[in-house]
Amino acid sequence: MVGAFYNPQLGAELAAAKGIDHLAMADPPAAHDAHWPTIRERYTLLLHDYLGQLSEPLDERSIERARSLATLYRTPWIAEHFQCLHTEDGRYNINYVFPPLYTDEFLERFVANARALQARLEQPLVMENIPGFFDVKASQLPEPVWLARFFDATEVGFLLDLPHVWLEAHYRGMKPEAWLAQFPLEHVVELHVAGVEEDEDLRGPWIAPTAPSEAMLAFLAHAVTRCPRAKAVTFDAFSPSLTADVLFRSVERIRGAL
Amino acid sequence: MTDRALQDLVLRALADASFRASSAWRQRALADPAKVERFARFLARHFYYERIVHFFKYSGALARVTGRRPEGTLRGAEFEALLPVVVLGSRQTARAVADLVVREVKGGAPVASIPYRDDLLRYEAAMMVAEAGPRVWRENGKGEEGRGTGVPETAEGTVLLDLAYDLPAVLPQLLQPWTEVPQAPPRPVRLLVARSPRGRVAVARTDSAVARVVELADGRRTLEELARAAGLPRNELEATLAGLTDLGAVRFGTGS
């Protein structure tokens, strides 16, 4: 399957579109979204909302929300992220995906909490890798090793975000293919691909809701051949500024690259 | 120190510019300080971009008249000057950023066609400030949702807004296509802006009785005392408190 994210401002275009197999849902549909019934009827929908950070167990309310959205979307799998973005006491929240320390303690936390969540869901859980802009010295394991241990210890699938891998390789001065080869690709169920853009604050490239470059598409083509269980590729752009032209052309180019 | 506590330190350093500059953080040498600073600035702009676009969306819809987009604030020198003291999510920073946005929008073209502009900016800024502050991320059985059995207390961040124009009557129209600026009826309204423990901001029209309860619920007065002070029968007070609790405007202490 090749698809994109459901961007509500493009609801009319997506409701009538051809060539898109699935839509990932980052937010629940708005009550006034006139296109939602058609979208729901027409597409395979993938639950990709913020459910909670699995450094802590999800509470009953969050689990019920996940179950309810999964039923609404009839999703084949449910996605969450390897992230820890707010402090345990709730006082500080960076409101942006941020990876946990890659340590044994966090591995135990994520394994236990993912298993507990999976046990409450009717659909398989998949987890997405999150890029680090800087290394934290307290991390004990390379990210790919930590991820491999996580997937080996759970029944959870891998949602491989390729721009995240590409960015990490860039900031490590490595070739993306070489960095990718270290990840546990045998667990990949879905791949994300998108563009990157220069950011003034970071003084370098970062995640952006833009079209993938030719180099990124070539990286995708390379990655897919190494992910034997992959079922879907998603154009990972979700933004009010995204245009129909960029979304449809990107999906078409992704399909062409595959 | 546990790894979870170390992660919290990193998150605090990214969120709190003063902590990031402190020796308490720097001496730990957990990460390249230049990269942490760059990422923190990126996060600050992202954090407040999302909030400005959301809470000032009505001013955003009026940008073709005012000539000023609220989020333009984030590329200005004044926001840059704020970065060394930013604490992501704090009420103080939210107030400072909201003030910058108000100044940015007011600095645009004359707005004779938007007589309610100042009211609108006050309303939007109040929403943004109300949303700030620590929040409950997960239930822990301690009744954070506000239905305890103790004395009622107006929640921090709850605001009563007295406006000269009936904004709720015009706000939905601003987000629809329009050629002439939709007008707000010039009649006084009092609005209550409140936030749930999980961060959901709600607005409701209110009257003087409700406003009195909000002003008097100080976490010390019992229900009897509050009913007397507000001049409300007990059953009416309880109904009012139930509505205020649902909005997040009032919480009940546990009494301990």
What attributes characterize this protein structure?
heterodimer; A: 258 residues; alpha/beta; eight-stranded parallel β-sheet; two-stranded antiparallel sheet; B: 256 residues; mainly alpha; three-stranded antiparallel β-sheet; 5 strands; 9% strand
Give a description of the structure.
The complex is a heterodimer of chains A (258) and B (256). With 258 residues, chain A is an alpha/beta fold. Chain A has a single domain (2-257), classed as TIM Barrel, CATH 3.20.20. Chain A has helices at 11-16, 36-42, 60-73, 104-120, 143-153, 162-172, 176-180, 214-224, 244-257; strands at 2-5, 22-25, 44-47, 78-81, 125-128, 157-161, 188-193, 195-199, 204-208, 232-235. In chain A, strands 3-2-1-10-7-6-5-4 form an 8-stranded parallel beta sheet. A two-stranded antiparallel sheet of chain A has the order 8-9. The relative contact order of chain A is 0.15. Chain B has 13 helices and 5 strands. In chain B, helix 8 runs antiparallel to helix 9 and helix 11 crosses helix 12 (223-230). The longest helix of chain B is centred in the N-terminal third of the chain and has 23 residues, at 33-55. Chain B is flat. The interface between A and B is large, with 42 and 37 residues.
Note the main sheet of chain A: 8 strands, parallel
Cα gyration radius of chain B (Å): 21 Å
Order of helices and strands of chain A: EHEHEHEHEHEHHEEEHEH
**Principal-axis shape of chain A:** globular
Mean pLDDT over all positions of chain A: 96
Integer count of domains of chain A: 1
Q: Kindly report the CATH topology of chain A.
A: TIM Barrel
Overall spatial form of chain B: flat
CATH superfamily of chain A: Divalent-metal-dependent TIM barrel enzymes
Q: Terminal Cα separation of chain B, in Å?
A: 30 Å
Sheet with the most strands: spatial strand order of chain B: 2-3-4
Q: Percentage of helical residues of chain A? A: 25-40%
* Reported CATH architecture of chain A: Alpha-Beta Barrel
| Unreliable stretches of chain A | none
